[in-house]
Every structure is written in structure tokens, then in C-alpha cells.
Amino acid sequence: MVAKEKMLGDVEHLADELATLIAETNNLLSDAEAIPNMYASTADAFVAPLQRTHELLETVPKDEPHFDKLSNLVDEAKNLHSQLLQRADAWREFVIERDTATDQLEMMRKPLDDIENQPLRSADQVLLDLDTLKNAKEELSELRTTMIKLQNLSEQLDPLESAYADVRFFDVDVEQTQQQFEDLMSLIDNELHDENILIESAQQLQRELERLEGELVNGVSKEQIDEVSRTHAVAPSQQFTHNVRSSKQFCSLSENLMRNVFTAAYILLNCYTCS
């Protein structure tokens, strides 16, 4: 009689313990604001009660009224325990994938940050930078696979809002980085186009200067030209450095070249008059 009362007391105690864990687990699994680490710790809390219940059920007669109640609680507890373990595993995998993807994105951004901070440089160097940006931008597509995996894991953690939020934030970071690559590449393309126009215009002005010189010199000696040049202090033509310039710089350089053309014409006319 005493043994039976003790057995029934143990049954009631374990039934209450399992019922409490079941209620807590149902709340945890349906909580969008849950703390993800609670999945693993709550799963651990099931281990001991389930083990004791399994041992107790082996001693309780199946015709005992409390047997079915405890047995049903065990089935429900095992099911929820399994769900908790799956959630805990999914969260661990999610954290690993999320952190790895974040590190990868930072590495992929490095060429972008480095090139944005570059000083004025030659057109050839800029072309190399443009190739670097194109290759780095293509590598961003590799993160799409990671994005799909993160999305799938976040769905396994549904309705956990923190997982969905992390996926959204990462997706925005990738899109912004891709846009920054495209903006910088477009800027470089435009500046290279302006550079080509600058070089072409400079060459055209140089040819015009040479043509004008050829038409005006007509027998004027080199000594006369040198003498008038020294008199009017004409600065030698500046050598062009093929750097990426803005349109304002182009206009300024063009004005200087035109000034040199008219100065040269003035010098040559003086030479012609002197002769």
C-alpha cells in the first residue's frame, strides 16, 4: 500500500513537471520575440524528467488510471523535445551561416573601400581598378546561395523575428554594396570618357598649333623665334599627365592651350614682321 502511494505520488509529480515543461515549450516555440538560446536550454530540461518517467512507466501497471495520462504526456513531451532540438540546431547553423556571410561581405567590400580612397592616378591604373571592381562585383553573386540558405533557416525558426530581421538586414547590406560597386564603376567610366575627350582635344589643339606655326613661320629663322619667345616669356608647353580629371579641369586646360596658340601666333607674327 505504501509502495503504491509512493508510486502514485511520483506519477503525479512527474506529470506536473512534464505538463509545466510542455506549456513553457509551446509558449517558447510560438514566441516571435523568444531568446533563441532558450531552445537548447529548454530541451535540456526535458532530459531528466523523461528519463525518470520512462523508468516509472515500466513499473506502473497499464490498467492503472494514471498510466494513460502519464503516457500521453510523455508522447507530447518527446515530440516537443524533438522540436526544440531541431530549433536549437537550426539556430546554431543560422548563426554560423550569418556570421560567415557577414565576414565574406566585408572581404568583398575591401576593393570598393580601397579604390574609393585612392588619390588621383593615371588612366592605366584606373582601368586596372575598374577590372578589380568588376571581378569583386561578380563575387557578390556567390552570396545569393548563402542568402537562400539563411532564408530557409529563418523559416525553420518561424516565427522567430530576430532571424527574419537578420536576413533582411543582410539582404539590404548586399544590395547596397552592389549599388555602391555599380555607382563607382559608372563614375570611373564617365571620368575615363572625359579623359579620352581631354586627350583628343589636347591632341587636336596641338595639331592646330603646329599647323599655325607652319603657316606663319615661312622663312623666319629659329634664332628670330627664340629671340621673340624670350622677349615675351612664353612658357614651354606642359606635358599632359593622363590622370582622371573633371570637366572643369578639362575646360581650364583647354583655355591654357588656346592661350598658348594665340601667344604662339603673336610671336610668329612678330617674327614675320621683323624679317
Automatic annotation (TrEMBL):
InterPro entries: Spectrin_Anc-1_3 (IPR057134). GO terms for biological process: cytoskeleton organization; nuclear migration; nucleus organization. Residues 123-156, 195-222 form a coiled coil. Transmembrane segments: none annotated. One of its GO terms (cellular component) is nuclear envelope. GO terms for molecular function: kinesin binding. Residues 80-192 form the Nuclear anchorage protein 1 spectrin-like repeat domain. The keyword Coiled coil applies. Keywords: Coiled coil. Pfam families: Spectrin_Anc-1 (PF24611). This is Nuclear anchorage protein 1.
